């Protein structure tokens, strides 16, 4: 079933929409959640929350890119679970990602939502200046939470080479933000 048909099922409030979403995107969602949580028990916890959030948001939302929409919901739920677990000192699955990006996107806690709304369009514009491969690398690492080792294996390259490329991308992003007047 294609994405448009699944979305139509949500609009008709058919429970089949959840089943079809799970069939088509369960492994995609679980991979994103596991990359953030590094824990199968927590990965299981997120799945029902994800489908409920999709059910409650369509309608009124009618996403153009259903996979990206689901990925964003999955990522946000997994990050919420990570924050809850991190507060309880149970899990440190995404600490490495946060530490890699902290020098670039270290937003004061009180201004987080405002700052991120301002920064997001700049990051999106910056991503468009990158090659398709660099875009994919950045998204795999910092949006989907893929490990450097996993990406290196997929791309037939060394982890060190990939780490260097990610370092250069982070510095490039920092310069792009500073050029736009964002100093974090």
UniProtKB/TrEMBL annotation:
Q: Ranges for the RNA polymerase sigma-70 region domain?
A: 25-85
A Pfam family hit: Sigma70_r2
Q: Which domain of life is it from?
A: Bacteria
Entry keyword annotation includes Transcription regulation:
yes
* Keywords per UniProt: DNA-binding, Sigma factor, Transcription, Transcription regulation
Keyword Ribonucleoprotein tagged: no
User: Known Gene3D superfamilies for this protein?
Assistant: 1.10.1740.10, Winged helix-like DNA-binding domain superfamily/Winged helix DNA-binding domain
InterPro entries, A to Z: RNA_pol_sigma-70-like, RNA_pol_sigma-70_dom, RNA_pol_sigma70_r2, RNA_pol_sigma_r2, RNA_pol_sigma_r3/r4-like, WH-like_DNA-bd_sf
Q: Which family does it belong to?
A: Belongs to the sigma-70 factor family. ECF subfamily.
PANTHER family tied to this protein: RNA POLYMERASE ECF-TYPE SIGMA FACTO, RNA POLYMERASE SIGMA FACTOR HI_1459-RELATED
Name this protein carries in UniProt: Sigma-70 family RNA polymerase sigma factor
**Organism, per UniProt?**
Ruminococcus intestinalis
């Amino acid at each position: 079933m294609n994405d448009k048909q699944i979305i139509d099922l949500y609009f008709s409030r058919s429970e089949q929409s959840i089943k079809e979403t799970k069939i088509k995107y369960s492994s995609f969602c679980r991979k994103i959640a596991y990359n953030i949580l590094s824990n199968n028990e927590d990965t299981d916890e997120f799945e029902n929350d994800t489908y409920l959030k999709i059910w409650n948001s369509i309608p009124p939302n009618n996403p153009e890119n259903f996979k990206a929409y689901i990925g964003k919901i999955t990522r946000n739920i997994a990050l919420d679970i990570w924050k809850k677990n991190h507060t309880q000192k149970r899990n440190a699955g995404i600490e490495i990602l946060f530490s890699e990006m902290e020098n670039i996107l270290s937003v004061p806690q009180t201004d987080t939502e405002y700052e991120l709304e301002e920064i997001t369009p700049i990051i999106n514009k910056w991503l468009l200046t990158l090659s398709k491969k660099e875009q994919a690398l950045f998204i795999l690492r910092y949006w989907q939470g893929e490990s450097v080792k996993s990406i290196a294996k997929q791309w037939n390259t060394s982890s060190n080479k990939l780490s260097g490329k990610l370092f250069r991308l982070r510095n490039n992003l920092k310069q792009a933000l500073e050029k736009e007047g964002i100093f974090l």
